[in-house]
Amino acid sequence: MGAPVRRGPVGGGLAGKGGPVRRAALAFLLLTLLVTGCAADPAHNETDVMFLQMGLAQIAEGDQVAVVAEQSAVNPGVRTLAAELRGQWQSESATMRGWLTDWDQPETAAKATGLHAGHGDLHALQPGDIDGLRAAKGSDFDRIAVALLLGNLHNTMETLRMATAGSAYPKVKSLAETMTATRQGQIQRLLALAAG
Amino acid sequence: MQRKFALPALTVAAVTGSLFVAVSPASAHGYISSPPSRQANCASGAVAGCGDIVYEPQSVEAPQGSMQCNGGGSRFTVLNDSAKSWPATTVGTSVTFNWVITARHATATWEYFIGNTKVASFNDNGAQPGATKSHTVSFAGYSGRQTVLARWNVKDTINAFYSCVDLNFGGTTTNPTPTPTTTSSPTPSPTVTSSPTVSPTASPTATPTPTSTSTSGTTTWAAGTSYKVGDRVTYNGVTYSCRQAHTALSGWEPPYVAALWAAV
């Protein structure tokens, strides 16, 4: 629950490394448990928290791409899709934040735990990506925007599938299932745009 | 020290029934999106019955050196099934391959094969790819339907990512009507850009529900048109019935895509 989770979808690292942040988080967790008793609400697990934190980070990255694509794509199909994604992300992320707040969990796993270190970075939007997108023109712009959105949604799908497989909290699982179906439909449209 | 041991135990107890599924999607990094690779055609729904690859077209990872579309091994073997109706994209001599990259691994080389012939190789000398990757490859001398095997060889692991792309060079002999988006110009233009002439019929609905526009009767098949199940089109004098809702793309002509069209 309070464990610092890696942002990149890479296994390992959860069990070890009792750094100060982790110990603080665990102490906080203990306090939370003592106070609330964790009784009334259905139990959630680490996967729920990890999905919400990673999912919010992925939405934030996707939105950086979509906001530019919505404005500047040549193909109206790209603009429509970007706008649609942004709308869905907005409501999804509000829901996701709500659960983290309810559970007294941070919205982002602490960076100090090495979250962004190593392989996880490879899956993230990189400095300069958005600048590169903005600098592109015409069909080049569309091609890059579609590729960036696809990359973001594919990484999202991995997180979503992790959640649907491992979630303990029914509402989270249900949201993840809905998002899986929605994102897959959008991936299909993006692939059609890429192939077109 | 005491705390160090006590707390994790408590955590485990608190996370009741927590089955932390360490799905390790580290094996997910990239594939060719256009011209659509086999896994892209699976993920886009153009080809049905693909299995799990629809959710992770970027995951076709296997040790380097394989000549198979799935990279060898037992996973995603559907990609090796040449009996499946893989759509072939009609292209000219020069083809630009666009990759979708979900993790930027330091790269040794990108290789393109037809059969056992290495048609092109690009050495990145360990560089990290950017947000996107494109290669333009000349296929002078090839004609008709061919399967291109692309290998992305990662620098710092023993693995590669595999994509097979079915292409139809120079149009087909059986298809006198040139498809709308084909650049069949004999001069190898530097980029055979798949120009976005396919009109974006992406509907605002996320569900892949049929969003057809036209057709109360039978029309002539055209790229860019949205078809729903049961729509009828003619192509080269043959009438086809739509089996799966989709927006038609060049390369998805009814005779070539049994997953989408059935002759009636």
TrEMBL record, chain A:
Domain DUF305: 48-192
InterPro entries: DUF305_CopM-like (IPR005183), Ferritin-like (IPR012347)
Pfam short name (any one): DUF305
Name assigned to this protein: Uncharacterized protein (DUF305 family)
TrEMBL record, chain B:
Keyword tRNA processing: no
Pfam families membership: CBM_5_12, LPMO_10
Residue ranges of every copy of the Chitin-binding type-3 domain listed in the record: 218-264
Region of interest: Disordered: 172-220
Signal peptide range in chain numbering: 1-28
PANTHER family with a match to the protein in the record: CHITIN-BINDING TYPE-4 DOMAIN-CONTAINING PROTEIN, GLCNAC-BINDING PROTEIN A
Record protein name field: Chitin-binding protein
Organism: Actinoplanes lutulentus
